[in-house]
Write a structure and sequence with these properties.
mainly alpha; 7 helices
């Protein structure tokens, strides 16, 4: 392997060595426990390593600011996943025991809900709103246009964008 191929990995290793402890501490203060902080710190560096293989790392004059930005996103995702899980478990508690899914089914459902949440979160706000009004509330394009105070043409464009996003995200 040439030095140019190992360079991104070396840069990430140096970043890790210099700032992992600091990032773990920063996350621990926000999350309140060591295990989740350690997991998210590892996720941050793993994400940086993966990204460095696709594109060069930015010039990091302020590495802690860069790590903080990544960590804030991970913390938001962490809390969103936990809120989604809590909502699912609350809804599941209302299901009679004889109709409750198995533990394996629960895990599959929860993972699917998290994937759907991430997929929807990646959409622009207006596109997401139009898509949800259509798919969850069953509104027509004209009703969506009235609800959002936009034209039907915009609704059609938003829906096309949402469907395209869903199709491209499908495995």
């Amino acid at each position: 392997m040439s030095s140019s191929e190992s360079s991104p990995s070396l840069m990430v290793a140096q970043l890790y060595d210099a700032h992992h402890g600091w990032l773990s501490s920063w996350l621990r203060k926000r999350l309140g426990n060591n295990a989740d902080a350690a997991d998210l710190a590892q996720d941050a560096f793993a994400g940086i390593l993966l990204a460095s293989r696709r594109q060069s790392l930015p010039n990091l004059r302020e590495p802690r600011a860069y790590l903080t930005t990544i960590a804030k996103r991970l913390v938001v995702d962490f809390y969103r996943r936990h809120a989604l899980e809590r909502a699912y478990l609350e809804a599941l508690a209302l299901v009679p025991a004889e109709h409750a899914p198995s533990e394996e089914q629960r895990l599959i459902i929860l993972q699917s809900l998290q994937e759907i949440d991430a997929l929807l979160d990646a959409l622009p706000a207006k596109v997401r709103q139009a898509f949800l009004l259509s798919q969850l509330d069953g509104l027509t394009y004209a009703q969506i246009a009235a609800e959002m105070s936009i034209g039907v043409r915009s609704v059609k464009r938003y829906m096309a964008e949402a469907f395209r996003h869903c199709i491209l995200a499908a495995p």
